[in-house]
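[audit] Reproducing an earlier prediction to check determinism. Same input, same settings, fresh worker. If the tokens differ from the archived copy the diff job will pick it up downstream; this log only records the rerun itself.
[audit] input (144 residues):
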Amino acid sequence: MIDPKNIASYPALLTEKVRLSDTDRQGHVNNVCFSFFYEAGRAELLLDKPERLDPGCFFVIVTTTVDFIGELHFPGDVVVATGVESIGKTSLSMRQALFQNGRCASVSSSTMVQVNISEKSAQPLSAATRARLEELLMLRPEAE
């Protein structure tokens, strides 16, 4: 079973710097900023290689959830872990987590739909795009 709180479950990791402006009066990273970190992880995964998108298409978020498990602090870095959980006809489900100093502070799941930009409607994933997304599927950590 895949453990979303285990960094070894994710095929893609991105390190982001925590900025002072991300914090609240208590020195914790504001909950809104968690969403910015997740956005950076999704963008890195889907936009760093244009061939992961069908021509003339883009992914849009349909649903997203964020579970807050712990705090993030300044100064420091946050590791944004991202992976594809499942792939549908026109959509994919992503799972993400935020880690600081080896500790999981949050997990998130999102459903994204591939949309044809000119038609403004969902477009089925091509076989090539599906194959590229399968390379990003969540990993099952080896038993310890």
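[audit] rerun output stored. Observation attached for the diff report: The first strand starts at residue 12 and ends at 17.
[audit] end
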